[in-house]
Amino acid sequence: MNLGEAFQRAAARAPDAEAIVDGDRRQTYADWYDTICRTAGGLVARGIRPNDHLAVVMKNRWEMATLAWASYMSGVIFTPINWRSTADEIAYCLEDSDAVLCVYDGSCENAVVQACNDTGLTGDKAIAAADAGECFSELMSADPVAGPSSVLDTDTALMLYTSGTTGRPKGVPRSHKAEWSATASQIMLNEYPRMLSQLCVMPLFHTMGMRTLEASALLNGKMVCLPDYSAAAVLDTIEQENIGGIFLVPTMYHDILNQPDIAQRNVSSVIRSGFAGMTMAPSLVEKCCNTFGDNFLNFYGSSEIYTFAASNRQREKPAAAGKPGLYQEIRIVTGDPDRRIMPDETVPKGNVGEIIVNLNSPDAFAGYWKRPDADEKAIRQGWYYTGDLGRVDEDGDVWVLGRVDDMIISGGENINPEEVEDALLRTNLCHSAVVVGLPDDRMGQRVTAFVEPRVGASAGILDDLLKKSVLANFKRPRAYAFVETIPRTASGKILRRKLRNGEYTLMAGYESTV
Questions:
Q1: Is-contact 35 181, C-beta < 8 A?
Q2: Gap between the Cα atoms of 128 and 103, Å rounded
Q3: If you write DSSP's letter for every residue of 114-142 in order, what string do you get?
Q4: Which residues neighbour 428 within 8 Å (Cβ) at sequence distance 6 or greater?
Q5: Phi, then psi, of 210 in degrees rounded to 5
Q6: Rounded-to-integer distance, Cα 345 and Cα 339, Å
Q7: H or E segment to which residue 222 belongs
Q8: How many CB atoms lie within 10 A of CB 420?
Q9: E-state strands within 318-373
Q10: Mean of the pLDDT values across residues 371-384?
């Protein structure tokens, strides 16, 4: 079964159920299926064929969601690109993916137009949707496709580009089978009920956003698009649309729970909540459970293999990634970024090492797009090397402890930065805190805290509070930088390399000690 067939069956199953909401636009499954088929017809009329790449550079809006399903319906490879990217970055993805058509909106018009000109996607090969130039409705003016294409479930349905935190982004081709297997995992591990209404605020160029898109359809639920994220907008939408499921990154939960009116907000409709994308500080886990209930899932995975592990025991084990997923086997091997570690070089249970996962899984990719160098680095003997540090405890639960190359070694001691970050957040004087190791002649690395401060924070006060905490003395930061903004990717992941490279702005009025 390909994903076009999956949507066709969903529409037949509940034609009158509400399927998608974007502002004033609301469509049932029957109506949206018709829109999708007409959009697919418009793509075909533009000369795109099965297994061609359709590049889409847009915010989360009904047009982008429609293009995803229209691609699946016509056997085209949906290739979304981060709309915050520069013209150079977009051009790289267009050229790398061999895109034959690009659709974009006004959020990135100048960058996309320049990128399309640079790569030869001009004329009717570049379509401006809704905000500028040719209206999206014209794309739907062609004859609709009769129904789903005959592409196989082993054919590529989607190609995501990784965040590119360490260089050029890598294309991650994913088959129809990998996608619906990943979505089935999402539904089962979260115990989603049928017709669950879900908020789509995670970007649709990210695996979490795609999971919301696909799970909503398979469950005949309502997907509510939120093109522009803000914590207040999330809370407004939950209340207005009776949202039942939210799937966010920890940064968003932090923002939401720090809204001044959070105690007066009605979030009782939310019956399924979860996070992914990065680890969450135990202090924030506690606040999330108190607000959204104990059915709060930590979902650990990646674009390459959707499910590594999951845990709904966050109250009992805050921030534990939990047991291996439905399809998965996990090992912890010696963590050494400078040596080619093999899958059999496992560490004793409880010891810290690199997390690797079995590629023999239906939700796994088969390798990077045109990047044998990346395959060689990340894939060995049928195992995928995550680059994450972790351990497995006595109950068999996986704990993610940061990145292999983020571990701080100061004075010969290994220091996990996330443990220090959690201690800083518990002082309630930090909006956000990131800890990295900076070069130090004596210690090798100096534990350095980059802090978005609250009123009353200072290096001296924070240090005094940490001395009274459970944090071991040698783990305390030896330098503080109070910054305006901690650099992050579009999906909320912290860009520690930018902090190491000095790419930050110190906040006026605070005395930094870096």
A1: no
A2: 6
A3: HHHHHHT--GGGEEE-SSSSS-HHHHTTS
A4: 454
A5: -65, -30
A6: 12
A7: none
A8: 23
A9: 323-324, 330-333, 353-358
A10: 95
Average pLDDT over residues 95-120: 93
Q: Could you identify the residue written with the tokens 């088969």?
A: 366
Buried b (16+ CB within 10 A) or exposed e, 252-289: bbbbbeeeeeeeebebeebbbbbbbbbbbbbbbbebbb
At 185 the pLDDT is 96
Is the pLDDT score of 133 beyond 80?
Answer: no
Cα–Cα nearest to 170, from 384, 387, 385, 367: 367
Q: What is the C-alpha separation between 409 and 114, in angstroms, rounded?
A: 44
As given in the structure block, the two tokens for residue 37 are 């088929």
Two structure tokens written together for 192: 């989603």
First to last CA, the chain: 57
pLDDT greater than 60 at residue 457 = yes
Radius of gyration of the chain from its Cα atoms, rounded to whole angstroms: 23
Residue 378's identity, in one-letter code, is A
Integer CA distances (angstroms), 162 to 56, 176, 261, 358, in order: 15, 19, 35, 20
- Cα 301 to Cα 281: distance, rounded to the nearest angstrom: 18
Retrieve residue 423's tokens.
């201690």
Nearest-angstrom CA–CA distance, 48 and 98: 12
Percent of the chain scoring above 70 in pLDDT: 97
- The pLDDT, as a whole number, for residue 405 is 77
Helices (H), 46-99: 62-74, 87-97
Mean pLDDT score, 458-473: 93
For residues 298 and 314, is the Cβ–Cβ distance under 8 A? yes
d(Cα 219, Cα 372) in Å, to the nearest integer?
37
Contact 42, 141 (CB under 8 A): yes
Owner of token pair 């944090």: 471
Residue 299: strand pairing partners: 310
Q: Which alpha helices (H) appear in 100-249, and where do they start and end?
A: 109-119, 136-139, 176-190, 207-218, 231-241
Q: What integer pLDDT is reported at residue 135 of this predicted model? A: 60
Q: Would you report the helix, strand and coil content of the chain in percent, each value rounded to 5?
A: 30, 25, 45
CA-CA distance, 183 to 157, in Å (whole number)?
A: 13
3-state secondary structure of 247: strand
Buried b / exposed e over 164-193, threshold 16 CB at 10 Å, is eeeeebbbbbbbbbbbbbbbbbbbebbebe
The pTM of this model reads 0.85
